[in-house]
Structure prediction request, 284 residues.
Amino acid sequence: MSTAALEALPPLRDVLAEHGILANKGFGQHFLLDLNITRKIARLAGPLDGCVTIEVGPGPGGLTRALLEAGARVVAVEKDPRFLPLLAQLAEAAPGRLTVVQADALQVDERALADAVEPGAPVRIVANLPYNVGTPLLIKWLTGPLLPESMSLMFQKEVAQRIVAEVDADAYGRLAVISQAIADAEIVMDLPARAFTPPPKVASAVVRVTPKADRPPEAVLKTLQAVTHDAFGQRRKMLKSSLKTLGGSDLCEAAGINPEARAETIDVAGFLRLAEAVKGLTAP
Ligand code: SAM
Prediction:
């Protein structure tokens, strides 16, 4: 596979200028125009051959170029139609390896998109996510039927810290519990705001999320969402009171959890026991 055609493409800044494209804040557009950075993100995403890589929000295609240079077969989902001509040029430079879909990533069926490239192929997700939909997309990919091998995702640093936070930390909450119940998560790269064009107000970080082989069953994930919603919705309250509608003290006792404890002191395993206990208490 030759990458000469990709390397011969003009700099991203020139491509944007040529097409007269300015960032649209409503779409969370903060571009990575430095290919050294996007190549590093592609490298950190691990070996991309043998799988289909889904990229959300390719925009002008800086990360897409790096993924293609690394040999990936990419399905790129972009909502803003202004980028389609730029991405078509990229597809020409990597024949047969880039499919562009104009759609809202919250609505697409990624499994069907990947199957159209190769039925049943393992999927990796790599994306510099739009800030306004980053968290709902992560939850969709963690809890939905896609079952990706890994996800390497750029978030606002504060969100990245909430994903990897440990019990008792300030950032520990619903996002940490749900993410870590399903996957291993670590911050693999920090990026200052100035790395982006235009720069956002805050720093960013890439989180690598690797789903565990023994994902909790569907029913437990459902009750885990309900338990964490109630427990962290009123995080200063004792669990016997914040979890009242799900079973209160009885639920805590069934899960071996002190009913007077507060949410931030319960580790991920404890929340999984609570979620399983809800299922037990509500089973016919
Ligand atoms: N990947 C590019 C880069 O690194 O330079 C652009 C990243 S920019 C932070 C986010 C991209 O996501 C934009 O191109 C934006 O148009 C796109 N986007 C925003 N909301 C989207 C959605 N709901 N579905 C798909 N793409 C979306």
Notes: The mean pLDDT is 95. The domain at 218-282 is CATH 1.10.8.100 (Helicase, Ruva Protein; domain 3). Residues 24 and 30 are 9 Å apart (CA to CA).
